[in-house]
Design goal:
single chain, alpha/beta, Rossmann fold, seven-stranded mixed sheet, 6 helices, 31% helix, globular, P-loop_NTPase, Small guanosine triphosphatase family Ras family protein, Small_GTPase, nucleotide-binding
Length: 198
């Protein structure tokens, strides 16, 4: 699993809040074009109900979740859900700093949103030290009819494999994959840090 390659800027480490309780504080950001469903994914995880008719994010939206892993480790996630509109993209770069995990989200019914993931990855590499950055590719809206998909499961998997990052498919309507992507990503990241990742 790839945590990126090193660059010049210093990457912060997740803060260990309470050593006796093994509680981590970790920053996660969501990147992707407008209307791919970044906010809907967070809202579903927060409320466990379908997220419908949400307004477009202006700037950023902040969420925070606590995830308790099976081994008893508690992880506090500070989540920054960024706007996908081009007008905000220059302002979002400050939120890249100190990030530990990045969800790169695209819409499986819109091919161009997957193509734009290349842009988001290049932006990250220019702005932050990505040596320890955990990247995850998410194909959202997987509940749609098969004939409306422009990106198949296999195509999403191939794209992620070429980037050496994990791939998940999610739906903020049915909830498919949402709990899994949060929990598995946090579990993998904590394991990486526990095994000596810096």
């Amino acid at each position: 699993m790839c945590f990126g390659s090193s660059s010049k800027k210093q990457q912060s480490k997740p803060k260990l809040l309470k050593p006796k309780q093994s509680q981590y504080k970790t920053k996660l950001i969501l990147l992707g074009d407008m209307n791919v469903g970044k906010t809907s994914i967070c809202e579903y995880y927060k409320k466990n109900v379908p997220a419908k008719n949400l307004p477009n994010t202006i700037g950023v939206t902040y969420f925070e979740f606590d995830i308790k892993l099976e081994n008893g480790i508690n992880v506090h996630l500070d989540i920054w859900d960024t706007a996908g509109q081009e007008i905000y993209q220059s302002l979002l770069k400050i939120y890249y700093q100190d990030a530990n995990i990045v969800f790169l989200v695209f819409d499986v019914s819109a091919r161009q949103t997957l193509e734009r993931v290349e842009y988001w990855i290049s932006e990250l590499k220019e702005q932050v030290d990505d040596k320890n950055l955990k990247l995850v590719l998410i194909g959202n809206k997987c509940d749609i009819d098969a004939d409306k998909r422009q990106i198949s499961l296999e195509q999403g998997q191939d794209f992620a494999r070429n980037k050496n990052i994990p791939y998940f498919e999610t739906s903020a309507i049915t909830g498919e994959g949402i709990v899994e992507v949060f929990r598995q990503t946090v579990k993998d990241y904590v394991q990486y840090k526990t095994n000596g990742g810096k």
